[in-house]
Amino acid sequence: MRVLIVEDEPFLADAIQTGLRREGIAVDVVHDGDAALEYVTINDYDVIVLDRDIPGVHGDQVCGRIVAEHPQVRVLMLTAARTLDDKVLGFELGADDYVAKPFDFPELVARLRALERRNQPAAPPTLADGGVRLDSFRREVTRNGRRVRLSRKEFAVLELLMRADGGVLSAERLLEKAWDMNADPFTNTIRVTISTLRKKLGEPWMIQTVPGCGYRFDGSRD
What long-range pairs does 58-67 form, CB within 8 A, spacing at least 24? Predict the structure, then answer.
């Protein structure tokens, strides 16, 4: 999952970014409405965490623009405006969810994952293909009952490939969804991550390279 945080308080924005990255979520941060609209145009986000009272273009206008121009992107308003009228207005603007500050971080993570699932075909939180079992809530992976310890990025890549249900994902798509804007698209990051992931899962290799196209997960090889 890739998330954009729109928050004008740098300390809070950094804290949310750090926490979400520890959950294996790719995160970018901007501090005003103008930058938010620019980033949404450039990058493919699953969810926008949006403060309403931000410099530049107001958060309400940002929400309206995203809903109109990028309907596939979910908007979670995270704001100090906590009255019932504020919440109703947020939903009327097109927000998908509304969390008032102060908030509990585990709840924020749970709400983000719930919003991400809305953009995908219905799928259980636990994925099983061949001998590989991936639990997206517990962040655990096993193969034939053996625990496989993965880094956050390795887990994110494996989850993307398994959710593709045998489809091919390009290196660019994996980089776009599992990393943030600091990732260099010209590095061999994806190739190295795939190679390490294969070794940790063990033979026979279940992640196949499709020349000129990308990678796919093939559970039938177990």
Answer: 58/33, 59/6, 59/33, 60/89, 60/93, 61/33, 62/6, 62/33, 62/36, 62/37, 63/90, 63/93, 63/94, 63/95, 64/93, 64/94, 65/37, 66/37, 66/40, 66/94, 67/93, 67/94
What is the fold, at CATH topology level, of the domain defined by 126-221?
Arc Repressor Mutant, subunit A (1.10.10)
Question: Where in the sequence of the chain do the CATH 1.10.10.10 domains occur?
Answer: 126-221
Q: 0.85 exceeded by the pTM?
A: no
Token pair of 119, please? Answer: 């953009």
Please state the φ and ψ torsions of residue 127, each to the nearest 5 degrees.
Answer: -105, 140
The total of other beta-carbon atoms located within 10 Å of residue 58's CB is 13
Q: What is the pLDDT of residues 122-142, one digit of tens each?
A: 456 688 888 899 988 788 999
Which one is predicted more confidently, 81 or 110?
110
2-118: what fold?
A: Rossmann fold (3.40.50)
Which tokens go with 30? 């901007």
* Cα 99 to Cα 78: distance, rounded to the nearest angstrom: 5
pLDDT digits 0-9 by tens, 184-210: 655 688 889 999 999 999 988 889 999
